[in-house]
Design a protein that fits this description.
This protein is mainly α and 298 residues long. It contains 16 helices and two strands.
């Protein structure tokens, strides 16, 4: 009887999202769970998310261990000044952002070649598609930074679609509009939702993301929301990272740059996220890619 009761309790603690049951108790709170040690050492996680965050996780389609608000990032200077400073850092490192983003997609331009191209000098030995991908990435960043600096950035569908229309231009038959067919993600059994569900999923997700008071958490969750649902035919992760950084920058926080040297780690982390619906390790990975760590070492 005791075993049956334990089984019943364990089942009730699970979270069912879009017909898939996620065992929340074991991966997050078991003594043997891979992230239990992180929670204990850093004291970063709140109460069990399946008890207080069911609507958030149900609406977004994935879950994670919430950060205690006492440990959420805070601004040490007025917002406008912090935004200008955060955007300045990105502009200074724009070639690195463009190079690493393109390299993660398999683009063969080297970093010096990217700098040369961004300076307006054509580089030989590459296809026009690779060149366009570099220039599109630069343009998308310029649009994002301009909107952030003048206070008009908004992580809504209009901005999301606008940036995808730039990022995926020339790579997909249709860009800048939600896809009208089914897609698959290589390396995982996870199947993104069918196209007729995308508008409703985004509308629900947008409202839920707005409810997250911690801008860093909201930014990371938006990227993972975009990547998991694959709203567009192509460029979903790139566009999602732009919106993620727009949210961070507009709150005076440093941007996140995923370096190509960590491509395997990034890919494996994303596959695990797709397979399990557990966003905790993906969020932890992204936090390690913040410019804050790099700038603090100078």
């Amino acid at each position: 009887m005791a075993e049956q009761a334990d089984a019943a309790d364990s089942k009730s603690a699970d979270l069912t999202v879009m017909g898939v049951r996620f065992p929340l108790r074991a991966p997050i709170f078991s003594e043997n769970a891979p992230y239990a040690d992180i929670a204990n050492k850093k004291n970063r996680f709140e109460n069990p998310p399946h008890m207080i965050n069911e609507e958030i996780f149900e609406g977004l389609g994935f879950y994670w261990s919430r950060i205690d608000s006492d440990h959420a990032p805070t601004l040490s200077s007025p917002l406008e000044q912090a935004v200008r400073k955060a955007c300045f850092h990105v502009r200074k490192l724009l070639a690195e952002f463009v190079y690493n983003t393109a390299a993660l997609e398999g683009n063969t331009y080297t970093y010096p070649e990217v700098k040369t191209l961004l300076d307006g000098v054509t580089v030989g030995g590459h296809s026009l598609s690779e060149q366009s991908q570099i220039l599109n990435q630069k343009e998308s960043w310029e649009v994002l930074l301009s909107r952030t600096e003048n206070g008009t950035f908004c992580p809504d569908r209009e901005t999301f679609s606008l940036l995808n229309g730039i990022v995926a231009r020339g790579e997909a038959l249709y860009c800048g509009t939600f896809r009208d067919g089914n897609v698959r993600i290589g390396g995982t059994d996870w199947i993104p939702p069918s196209p007729e569900k995308l508008s409703g999923i985004f509308e629900t997700g947008e409202a839920i993301l707005k409810s997250l008071s911690d801008p860093e958490e909201r930014a990371l969750a938006f990227f993972l929301f975009a990547a998991r649902n694959q709203f567009f035919w192509d460029g979903n992760k790139r566009t999602g990272r732009l919106i993620m950084n727009g949210i961070l920058l507009s709150h005076g926080m440093n941007a996140i740059l995923v370096p190509v040297k960590r491509k395997q780690e990034f890919d494996e982390t994303m596959i695990r996220f797709y397979d399990t619906g557990d966003a905790t390790p993906a969020m932890e990975f992204l936090r390690t890619c913040s410019l804050t760590r790099r700038l603090s070492r100078k």
